[in-house]
Write a structure and sequence with these properties.
Number of helices: 7
Low-confidence stretches: 1-7
Mean pLDDT: 91
Shape: globular
Helix content: 40-55%
Distance between the termini: 50 Å
Largest sheet: 2 strands, antiparallel
Radius of gyration: 19 Å
Strand content: 5-15%
Number of strands: 6
Length: 245
């Protein structure tokens, strides 16, 4: 794969080619994967985007088969049903796949974005749940944010375009999780109900929808027990109050 915008040679310190077997077609392949414990997490954004020192780990979460084009994030990479295989074949999976998107080398932001978009197409092709589509949209938004931040003060037009696309995918994530909440059982993409409610509230804040956010945050705080997500909910409640004042 050609080195494109956002390519980072230092990524080689944090990733390695790991062998996988495609659940869709059975092909064995290698995919760049994060080394366990190598990247140190130093914080996170309000919408739970993780921030690591030295590397944007979001770039490397998609696992993609070079034979049939099937791809998804690591959390969802596992067995698929015969019905999903049928749906995928009917969608002509290989025909909407560009083999150059499959790679066992370090990735640029453009490379990673292409892979995430392919993973989202695959999710629609296999008729995956709304929660999986929403989570993919959220991670695409995180990727676009990381790309924009990596540019620093350079290329203002590119940064503006990335920010616009980020908001588009955040909106899709917000709507997708709200839909999943009505139809699916928890956990959703590994998240419990408190976490999803907090996440959707933070996405409402992004779009200035403070009343909707406040209702969700109040619900998170009102539920019994203590957790890290409830501590974050208190912080977000204070932020909403500041923004509304």
């Amino acid at each position: 794969m050609a080195k494109q915008t956002g390519y980072c040679e230092k990524d080689t310190d944090y990733v390695f080619p790991k062998k996988f077997e495609c659940p869709m077609c059975g092909n064995s392949f290698k995919n760049m994967t994060l080394k366990t414990g190598k990247a140190r997490m130093i914080g996170s954004d309000d919408d739970l985007r993780p921030i690591h020192e030295g590397i944007d780990t979001v770039k490397y979460d998609v696992i993609m088969c070079p034979a049939c084009g099937y791809g998804t994030i690591a959390r969802s990479f596992g067995p698929v049903t015969q019905v999903q295989k049928k749906y995928y074949r009917e969608y002509e999976g290989p025909n909407f796949f560009d083999p150059s998107m499959s790679s066992d080398t370090v990735l640029s932001y453009q490379d990673a974005l292409d892979r995430y978009k392919q993973a989202l197409c695959c999710c629609y092709a296999k008729q995956g749940p709304d929660s999986e589509k929403a989570y993919l949209c959220l991670k695409i938004a995180w990727l676009l944010r990381g790309w924009r931040q990596a540019l620093g003060g350079k290329k203002p037009n590119t940064r503006a375009a990335l920010e616009e696309k980020e908001k588009e995918f955040l909106m899709r994530a917000r709507d997708g999780f709200k839909s999943a909440n009505l139809k699916e059982s928890y956990p959703l993409c590994g998240m419990d109900e408190l976490t999803v409610d907090y996440l959707v509230a933070s996405l409402h804040v992004t779009f200035g929808e403070y009343d909707e956010a406040s209702k969700l945050i109040s619900g998170v705080i009102a539920r019994g027990g203590r957790s890290r997500i409830k501590e974050r909910a208190h912080d977000l409640k204070d932020k909403i109050a500041e923004l509304k004042s």
